[in-house]
Queue: 2 jobs
Job 1
Amino acid sequence: MTTPSEPLQSETDPAARVFPPSPEFTAQANAGPELQTAADADREGFWAAQAQRLHWHEPWTEVLDWSEAPVAKWFVGGKLNVAHNCVDRHVEAGNGDRVAIHWEGEPGDSRAITYSDLLAEVSRAANTFTELGLVSGDRVAVYMPMVPEAIVTMLACARLGLTHSLVFAGFSATALRSRVDDAQAKLVVTTDGQWRRGKAAPLKDTVDEAVDGAACVEHVLVVRRTETDVSWTEGRDLWWHETVAHASPEHTAQPFDAEHPLFVLYTSGTTGKPKGIIHTSGGYLTQTSYTHHNVFDHKEGRDVYWCTADIGWVTGHSYIVYGPLSNGATQVVYEGTPNSPDEHRHWNIIEKYGVTIYYTAPTLVRTFMKWGREIPDAHDLSSLRVLGSVGEPINPEAWTWYHEVIGGGRCPIVDTWWQTETGAIMIAPLPGITACKPGSAMATLPGISAAIVDEEANVLGASSGGSGAGGDTVQGYLVLDQPWPSMLRGIWGDMDRFRETYWSRYAEQGWYFAGDGAKYDEDGAIWLLGRVDDVMNVSGHRISTTEVESALVSHPSVAEAAVVGASDATTGQGIVAFVIQRGGQTQSGEAYITELRDHVAKEIGPIAKPRQILVVPELPKTRSGKIMRRLLRDIAENREVGDTSTLADAAVMQSISKGLSAPA
Ligand code: 6R9
């Protein structure tokens, strides 16, 4: 998939269209075919060359030590300071006046923070943390909305060798407490409150509740944001504006080992207890920097980059903080929701700052579709030149809409597959090279190796880095068959679980089990099919929930769909679909359901026809926007609905159940 091809136009099936980059884009692109050639010739040498993107206080003696697999050591013996790489060296290079962060507050306030400003702020915070007695190796919990101080805190931790652990500010006190306890955090950094759709919601209160009786927590540092009243524990609580703001803006960064832990980030697994994913310094920064530069075609000093993720998720860590800042980027950081004060907010921001690279999630693209194209159409989005997608497979309809309506038909879309565990992008198009297919993440990046395998560890179809001449369309499990620099180094406090979760399935082969289904198409392009527990088996046919969802969304009346496999006595699993209609739709009843079922049969084949289709007002989603199919499966299998504590909006399940009992 590395050569642009003639556009293959198909009126009916958007996934069958191919979008090669324009010659103009290719001519100016950061990444050319030489990257793959270099990686194929010498993978470790390739990564050593990428690591030269960074400033090293001391060089490494060995690129990769895999002798203690599955715990990798990258750039063995090398020493660097991550914050120095993200801040100081840009100032030293004479770019101190460049804006690092165009921060846009939800109520409409804004701040432009230059690299010099950032250096002073990070140094102040580092001096304060040191005064509080924190030393390299200590953990700091960060429970903050999207304010600049959150990024400053992360970088101050990196500067001192403190390990940060961000907890998304939408999580409950209980969730925060379990993470603070697990990581044994000494400091919790938070704000008084956070803006949410024009209202100030308290945040410090939640921290008070969470850390009550937590022996490990010595201090709570509070940034004033909403002027919300807070209760105060003398001796423990400190205001940012009374401490950090008065600290010295001078601080010299010390180098740390390449394998020094940079952060722990909790992510949910198949069991109840979240896993603290450990990332270290040199390899992580190398791969986030490399991917941000090449996948987004980022041009230092020229682009205005915007990743809409929250810093509480891995996308915010790698593609708001470490990747972009290591590359000296100028970026937009927006505090609020996309419909505050109205649905024009993102497009207003793009116009205001001249955003050139926009990276978001499919769920948001589908929300924009639901709101209608007249909203983005009312804006000048001509500054945009690269669009990105992450978090779940993007269905071809959403891809096409994103391409046409937001990208004006001219912007490459990079559909980036990766995970909290992988630390950085693994599978994605390179925008100047890859001819993209809507809905496919296309190919492993140069330097990355993956395979699609079956239960018995047979390698299916074309393997990564190969020519893509796969032949058959085969489906299986995605594995990563070679270590990569930004790979997780373990699960905090539970290395057995680390081995069990990711490395036991293909222990003999030494492959990392990603937990995602995938297939190659006949051209060797990789299609991610969702988590393997979301891949259904109907009468012996493997059918992806994503494929059925895409088919439903391609019906003009459907805005969003979620599909689950419900156990079925005859077919193993039966497909049950939940659909949200587009605004203004009034169709209902048996005839409408039949029309949708037939539509799916037409798009994929009769075997993919849902057994049942339920029209619902909303879908249950986690705070990071992932559909909680487990809950839908409970409804589909007539069970009592399970644990809803990680839902963004707990009332959704009630409104779904209510809607279902009402006549169609
Ligand atoms: C970065 C992030 C990881 C899971 C992953 C997969 C899904 C992410 C995707 C994608 C298809 C993409 N996923 N990006 N599936 N295409 N471009 O989202 O990390 O929150 O840990 O989720 O998300 O299922 O396994 P994380």
Job 2
Amino acid sequence: MKGPNAEQLAFDSRHIWHPYSSMINPPSMFPVESASGVRIKLSDGRELIDGMASWWSAVHGYNHPRLNTAAKEQIDRMAHVMFGGLTHTPAIELSRKLVAMTPAPLQRVFIADSGSVSVEVALKMAIQYWQARGKPGKQRMLSIRNGYHGDTLGAMSVCDPVNGMHELFSGVLSQQLFAPRPETPFDGVFDDRDIAELERLLSTHRHELAALILEPVVQGAGGMRFYSPEWLRRARALCDQYEVLLIADEVATGFGRSGELFACQHAGISPDILCVGKALTGGYMTLAATLATADIADTISSGGAGCFMHGPTFMANPLACAVALESLTLLEEMDWRSQVIRLEAGLKQGLEPARSLPSVADVRVLGAIGVIERHQPVDLAEVQPLFVERGVWVRPFGKLIYVMPSYVMSDEDLATLTGAMVDVIKALD
Ligand code: PMP
């Protein structure tokens, strides 16, 4: 379909909810005609270099011929079929690849339909696991301040209640526990005191805790912070010591983004349960997965219910699985690590000039993630057009101006992108 005309845009602002938006005062929209490679083409003909990869997901760029072919071939065979009592090659081969790519202990795959649902599934797995182990009192979750795990009610309950996104619902959410966020930065020298409160909570509440859920090494929507892999290593050891499962939410970080295929691998650890999504289909369509150890799967299966209690209608949608399989194959073939290292160098160099600007509190880069943190939040309505005028698509959040480009972005486009970020901050100053 072509880009929207004036009547369609009027309908949009009157009738369609966009993410986190008001229907009385709808946000202004930039109508899109198409997207290809790292460029988003607006309806007025302007082309924007995309810094967001559609929120971490379009790692191969848009309109990729191999992903297009995978989708077309699969749609002519079977777009969807129920997964109850039926199975198919796209789901089997995708799961085989996920088991091979993720840390070795993760052997069982539940194919979910979005990142938030993969988190719900992980939480339910942890609860069912302890029930099956004869410890039904272990139902609570421990989470980390500044963490973010999605917008459904269970996922919201393990999001930091003070990060502002979910506090309206605090009365209806399960009451979970929260440990302080890790303070030791990615390259910092770890100090035992940084994890003392986590240990205290694990030891005091071990009888009621099912799992610790965290975003390994990179805290995304809750602040775009990169913390010490040593902290994560210690957290893994503490979970073992106090018999609490470890759930790693790699919905954002999975598939190379942080410089390792999975951010857990910076610490050389494996979680008991792993959530992946976003980049799984190269950003083509919604699909996620929750992987678990054989012990967790077998224990749940031998429990009272005899099965895991989840089964969405669009589970393992063949179209999404076929595209995801091709996306992961592409990732392996492209030498993603060299590309991410290249982008990391370009982001460091390009964002460095922001460090000396008066409004800038911090500049940080890890893998293909670049962040400028300001002292004050930006006004999105004011700042978004400034980026578009400079030919880039960047969507700031609060004090954070950040990018996570596609792995195929050229050095030249990356320099334009980072240059525009620095330039916009100068204009705001
Ligand atoms: N976990 C993390 C770490 C995320 O960043 C997100 C999405 N921003 C989610 C879960 C939820 O994923 P989705 O938006 O696909 O439901």
